[in-house]
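Field notebook, page 79. I keep forgetting to write these up properly, so this time I am using the form the group agreed on. The chain and the ligand, heme C, are recorded exactly as supplied. Prediction of the bound pose follows.
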Amino acid sequence: MHSVRKKSVRLLAVGVVLVAALTLVSRSTQPPVQPFDPAHRGLAGNPDCAPCHAADAAAPLGPRHPPKDDCLHCHPPAG
Ligand code: HEC
Ligand code: HEC
């Protein structure tokens, strides 16, 4: 009886850790699509993004942003 409860507590702990880890991983690897707003309509590629997303622009990329060769490859336009 006692050991069965211990086992299920351990199983539960493993499950919680797994879910947390998967959530973190999927969060950090899913690039967000471009917002569906006027600023993001009809843009062709990197040179169109720089005015707003360059390091010194209005909406700079975060420090954890992956390499940024081709914006549209990872961030397709919405809609
Ligand atoms: C006119 C300014 C402007 C241009 C040009 C622009 N953006 Fe943005 N972008 C913003 C602003 C401001 C935000 C943050 C606010 C928001 O979500 O609308 C943003 C947010 C984003 C986000 C984050 C969405 C999210 O859910 O976190 C992505 C991805 C993005 N832009 C991609 C691009 C790409 C790719 C281009 C070029 C093809 C581009 N943007 C061009 C202003 C711009
Ligand atoms: C290799 C894929 C990839 C490329 C190429 C890429 N991005 Fe991203 N981008 C991501 C991922 C993944 C995230 C989410 C980062 C996070 O969660 O920390 C992201 C997040 C963003 C965000 C939200 C703010 C932030 O920093 O988290 C913006 C805005 C953005 N990218 C714009 C761009 C622009 C503009 C370019 C081109 C200069 C670009 N991205 C190229 C994968 C990419």
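OBSERVATIONS:
- Residues 34-79 form one domain.
- The chain has two domains: 1-30, 34-79.
FOLLOW-UP: compare against the apo run.
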